[in-house]
Write a structure and sequence with these properties.
The complex is a heterodimer of chains A (407) and B (140).
Chain A (H helix, E strand, L loop, with lengths): L6 E7 L3 E2 L8 H16 L8 E5 L6 H7 L7 E5 L7 H13 L5 E9 L25 E2 L3 H7 L9 H4 L1 H11 L3 H16 L13 H6 L2 E3 L2 E2 L7 E10 L1 H4 L7 E9 L16 H4 L5 H11 L8 E3 L5 H10 L8 H6 L17 H4 L6 H12 L11 E6 L5 E7 L2
Parallel strand pairs in A: 3-4, 3-5, 11-12
Antiparallel strand pairs in A: 1-9, 1-10, 2-9, 5-9, 7-8, 10-13, 12-13
Chain B lengths: L13 E2 L4 H8 L4 E5 L5 E2 L14 E5 L3 E10 L11 E8 L6 E6 L12 E8 L5 E7 L2
Antiparallel strand pairs in B: 2-3, 2-4, 5-6, 5-8, 6-7, 8-9
Chain lengths: 407, 140
């Protein structure tokens, strides 16, 4: 291990369940549970924790978590901005920067989602004016920058992520001949991985390509099984210094490099921005960031043994494969068709936990958890002697990524 | 009032002081893009600062309302009551706009016949006396 790089020393999670199935404990309590389990996994005590990091307008604020978990001296707390899934790896990067800079010694990165307990964007009843008689349609006041951004396209019915990310995927199909079956093969592969993972929400639901083809169309080319799950659950990872990592319970995993990125003119990406530059439109918009990441780590895509790629939608994974240089632009479909993503004999075993498509949708922090497990040899779909793992947070929105390593 | 394509219960635009003027032009059936008065860069959605020269001065340039489908999706889940499904959300590349695209719907055609590159023109849907929403239909 090189001298100064921060290490991930603990991972943990709550039970994962389908959307709305966890109602007896709060989202906040679930966050606490995941944090406690990750700290325990590291062989640390809550008394050792002095920092908390999160992302994307987390409802579960660090000050309350710190109080409830009895953190004796919380001296670092921060959060990466929106969007939802784009900041998971950046939150890990913030934790790493904090321990490397001496701002804290043990920082826990966490995510908890019980969306059934809260208002859901785009859900029925969203525009409840409360008036007995419906009002005449008119322009409404946006109460945030985010709502002003989406509010510009809402009158066209653009409310669903499944529709938003269908737009670049449809264009990718047009430009490169990508097919629905190629997207389906990706979904089937991740489901196979989930079937081996007892934590996976869809673990007991095997899926064939025919099942995929028969699943209902949501926003074409997205069928139901192109879309990630909506889940209740929480997970956490513990980051500390190499000195502190040396004598803990588990083999530490080094954070080799991290990067965050939003291309010029990108904004929130294709959801609300019809003017994403043409050269970026049918991509995950991660290529420039990926090149920075490879440069910083001094390695390239051929050095990656296993990948945990943010999978909100199948097409967004396909475009990431091209962005990160695992195949050429436009060749993501054939790359998937080659069986590359399978844990068993694939050239790039990907989402060995089942991903957001089949394990759980915890805004991709569960991909960091799986990244750590895959390098520790603890994955339920293990990749033998894996030394380098790429973890990404989102695509087609501002994103982040980390490279994890084991010596 | 115009021909109707979507029910009243479609989500309304949500605007702030930067984007509200665009909807005021739309109410007059004027399809406009924002143009920087310093470097002539055009854009949508409206922005308080020009992304190219960082000027804060801009005006509105009316466009013809012709364009072509850049990409699209057929949405099979309703966002409003009593809505015809599927409906088409599309990105339209606006002719004569300096390369600006906008989100909209393609109407007046079977959803399965929509394709990338299809030539379209604006058709205004008056949702109320105050709100007009630009949709697009195939030319000719």
């Amino acid at each position: 291990m090189s001298g100064s790089k921060a290490q991930i020393v603990g991972v943990g999670e709550s039970k994962y369940a389908r959307w709305g199935k966890i109602g007896d404990v709060t989202e906040h309590a679930l966050a606490c549970q995941a944090i406690q389990r990750a700290v325990e996994d590291a062989g640390l005590s809550m008394d050792d924790v002095d920092g908390l990091a999160s992302f994307a307008e987390d409802r579960n604020e660090a000050v309350f978590i710190g109080a409830e978990l009895g953190i004796p001296r919380l001296r670092f707390g921060n959060m990466v901005w929106m969007p939802g899934g784009g900041g998971g790896c950046a939150a890990v990067a913030n934790a790493a920067m904090a321990v490397e800079a001496g701002q804290a010694e043990v920082v826990v990165v966490y995510r908890s989602l019980c969306q059934g307990q809260f208002f859901r964007f785009g859900s029925p009843g969203m525009d409840t004016s409360g008036a007995a008689e419906p009002e005449a349609p008119t322009v409404k006041q946006a109460d945030s920058l985010m709502i002003a951004s989406i509010g510009f396209v809402m009158p066209y019915g653009m409310l669903m992520a499944a529709a938003a990310y269908a737009l670049p995927t449809r264009r990718h199909m047009h430009l490169y001949g990508t097919t629905g079956d190629q997207l389906g093969m990706l979904a089937v592969t991740f489901r196979e991985h989930a079937s081996r993972n007892p934590r996976a929400v869809m673990g007991g639901r095997p899926m064939t390509l025919d099942d995929y083809r028969a699943s209902p169309m949501i926003a074409d080319p997205h069928r139901l099984f192109d879309c990630c799950l909506e889940s209740d659950g929480a997970c956490a990872v513990v980051v500390t210094t190499p000195e502190r990592a040396r004598d803990l319970a588990k083999q530490p995993v080094e954070i080799l490099a991290s990067e965050q990125g939003a291309p010029k003119g990108y904004g929130f990406g294709t959801f609300s921005n019809a003017n994403v530059p043409d050269e970026l439109y049918a991509t995950g918009a991660n290529e420039e960031m990926a090149n920075r990441l490879w440069g910083k780590a001094g390695i390239g895509p051929n050095d990656v043994d296993v990948a945990q790629l943010y999978d909100h939608f199948t097409g967004c994974v396909l475009m990431q494969l091209e962005d990160y240089g695992f195949c050429k632009r436009g060749e993501g479909g054939p790359f998937i068709e080659s069986g590359a993503l399978s844990w068993h004999g694939g050239s790039l075993p990907t989402n060995t936990h089942g991903g957001s498509l089949s394990e759980a949708y915890i805004h991709g922090l569960n991909h960091v958890v799986e990244g750590v497990r895959s390098l520790r040899g603890e994955s339920t779909s293990p990749v033998e002697n894996a030394e380098v793992c790429l973890v990404t947070s989102a695509a087609c929105v501002p994103s982040s990524a980390v490279l994890l390593g084991r010596k | 009032m115009s021909e109707r394509f979507f029910p009243d219960s479609m989500p309304p635009p949500m605007a702030d002081a930067t984007t509200l003027p665009w909807w005021k032009e739309a109410a007059k059936h004027r399809l406009v893009v924002q143009r920087c008065t310093s470097c002539q860069h055009t854009c949508l959605p409206p922005s308080p600062v020009c992304s190219e020269c960082r000027s804060t001065e801009s005006d509105w340039q009316e466009v013809s309302g012709r364009g072509e489908v850049y990409t699209f999706t057929r949405v099979h889940r309703p966002v409003a009551g009593n809505q015809e499904l599927p409906f088409v959300i599309a990105v339209i590349a606006l002719k004569g706009s300096g390369g600006v695209r906008m989100m909209s719907n393609v109407v007046g055609v079977k959803p399965e016949d929509v394709e990338i590159g299809m030539a379209v023109e604006v058709i205004w849907e008056d949702m109320s006396e105050e709100l007009a929403v630009p949709r697009f239909r195939p030319v000719g």
